[in-house]
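WARN retry 2 of 3 for item q-0093 after timeout on previous attempt; input resubmitted unchanged.
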Amino acid sequence: MVSITVSAAAKAPSFARDLPISVEVEEGSTIGELKQKINRKFPKFSTSRQKITLKGDRKPLDDATKIETVFGGKLEGAELQVKDMGPQISWKTVFLIEYVGPLIVHPIFYYFPKVFYGRDFQHSALQKYVFAFVMLHFLKRELETLFVHRFSHGTMPFLNVFKNSFHYHVLSGLLLAAHVYSPKYAAGAPAIVGTYRDNATFLKVATAVWAFAEVSNFHTHLTLRNLRPAGTKKRAIPAGYGFNLVSFPNYFFEILGWVVISVMTNSIASHFFVVVATVTMAAWALKKHKNYKKEFGKEYPRSRKAIFPFIL
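OK item q-0093 returned
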């Protein structure tokens, strides 16, 4: 057994005011096991709230990392810091909360137009198609969260759920629903009659492209799931459908599906959502693409782009 010092990286939380403390660890102990010892010392300091770092460093140490490797095998006199990350919530719960917003908001606007627009009216074929697309998309996302996705991180700060939900509840929920299901796009409205929005062939082609994007997105999620065995954080280079061109075809197909809705409606609300979603996912893709190349080095395909084939 070796004793190492654990101090507070910032102000010690009220339930761990005895920091710094000495913790005895066995040879081969991991950061995760150290967290468990800290939790036993301070029961309210759950392992999910703890961020363990080297003294003076901000980069968190992975739970699977052996403590002795952090210090080159010399544990005597070693010191690590712990920071309280605040109340946590599981990623799965966050996703479920995010995606349920549009599933509630869109039916309210669609089925109760008199409440929002002062009168009832007949929905156009366009509105019916968009409503079906949105509901099926977010139902798919909920089911994927429950039965497909495997998360590399168990939790995230609780307050992030509000920030993350804004994108879905407000932009693809409230903003999109209020505009697309308005009388402007109702059956018989000038924006519909005699335009491509009322063309049966156009709507069928749009449906085919949208369905292609959704099925392709689902396929890439299955590929990513199969890369990570249950209960592990294993990472591997994805390959196959979509991945041969870009690192994150799931984002590309997601964007394609929303672009279809944007083209169908030519709604400023849908255009705005597509722009925000594209910029957001492109930023995620570029960051993760860089991490892939750094992690796998020469093994990672050099010609592969981040999100848009042959472009970005």
